[in-house]
Amino acid sequence: MAVEIHPATARVLDNFRYDHLPQHLQAVSQPFHDLAHQLAETLAGPEVPKALDDLWAAKNWAVVAASNAALEGASPAAAVPELGDTVLYRLTEGDAAHINPWRRDFHDNGSADSHTGFVGHVGNWVRAGDIFPAVVSQVHAESTVTCNLRVLLDGSDTYWAPSRAEGEDLGQWSRKGGA
Which CA distances in Å does 129 have to 2, 121, 123, 164? Predict the structure, then answer.
């Protein structure tokens, strides 16, 4: 029996995203995501957000445990990036869908031709898979090397990519030159 999901509960469900995690951690996180959605879609009442909060905490501990296990069995990794380090970020479809309308809006509204000094989102169009340098603006968890990044686009603007993990997939960052 499906129930109407309260907006506050829907916001809690957003915490169960796992697509930003490395593949081996996605496998640990996805069952918690699926269970959270099942609970929210079948139960109602003030107990549901509490259950989801506790499930979210359990999911986080499971991801940390899996991350630590992977690190213990891994070869020595490169140092955790520091604030201000430059890495390479690979755009996702969602990133490109977010960036390109900014640039289209600037041109469609005549701002590009006004020569008034207005600074807008000017630059080349982007696609999923494009790689841009990014400056590390925050390191969240050294165990998973999750960082906030300021992606330096080919233009006058930047793109904020929060909570991104190291890797070679879309939506992940890697070290310059494979280091």
Answer: 38, 20, 17, 15
Closest CA to 40 of 63, 70, 7, 62: 7
CB 104: neighbour CB atoms within 10 A? 12
CA distance 117 to 2: 54
**Tokens at residue 88, please?**
């390479």
pTM of the model: 0.52
Alpha-carbon distance of 72 to 68, in angstroms, equals 6
* Tens digits of residue pLDDT in 20-76: 888 888 888 888 999 989 988 998 888 888 888 888 888 888 888 888 877 776 544
Tell me which amino acid residue 22 is: P
